[in-house]
Amino acid sequence: MRIVIDTNIFLGACLGTGAANQAIAACLRGKCKPLMGTALLTEYEDVMGRSELFSQCRLSLDERNDLLDIFLSVCEWTRVYYIWRPNLPDEADNHLIELAVAGGADLIVTRNLRDIQRGELQFPPLRIISPEAFLKEI
C-alpha cells in the first residue's frame, strides 16, 4: 500500500500522539510505503524547525531529527512532473494530492480530512483518511 503521510501526522508522532505515532511506526515496520516529494519534505523541515510546537515534546531536537531521517529512509522519493490543481480550500495542501497522484498512492493519511476532501478535482481511487482509519486497514 502506497501512502502519503501529511505533516500533521508526523508532528503528532513526534509529540507521542497515539494513532499518529502508530501510523509512523507502521511505515517504519514496512506495512506500507510512504511517498515523499520536494514540497512535502520542505513542509516537514519547516514544521520540525518550529521549536514552539515542541515545548511539551518527549523527544529532543536530535531525536526528532533522527526520527525524520529514519522515516525518510523508508520513503519512496516521488517526483511530481505535473501540477494537478485540485483547488483545495487551503492552497498549501494541494501538493499532497499532487504527490499522491504522481506516486500512485492509495491513501493520504491526515488529520485535515475536511479540507483535503473538498477539492474541485477528484481522484476516485485516492482516499483521504485519518490515522485511526489507516490503522484499521493495515
Features:
138 residues, alpha/beta, Rossmann fold, 5 strands, 48% helix, globular
Q: Estimate the strand proportion.
A: 5-15%
| Largest sheet geometry | 5 strands, parallel
Write down the CATH topology: Rossmann fold
- The number of E-state strands comes to 5
- Domain count, please report it: 1
Terminal CA distance: 9 Å
Helix content: 40-55%
Give a quick summary of the entry:
The protein is an alpha/beta fold and 138 residues long. The protein has helices at 7-15, 18-28, 38-48, 61-74, 94-103, 113-116, 131-137, and strands at 2-5, 33-36, 76-77, 107-109, 127-129.
Structural notes for this entry:
This protein has one domain (2-137): Rossmann fold (3-Layer(aba) Sandwich), CATH 3.40.50. It has a 5-stranded parallel sheet with strand order 3-2-1-4-5, with helices on both faces. The chain has helices spanning 7-15, 18-28, 38-48, 61-74, 94-103, 113-116, 131-137; strands at 2-5, 33-36, 76-77, 107-109, 127-129. It contains 7 helices and 5 strands, in the order βααβααβαβαβα. The chain is α/β, with parallel strands linked by helices and 138 residues long. The model has no long low-confidence stretch (mean pLDDT 88).
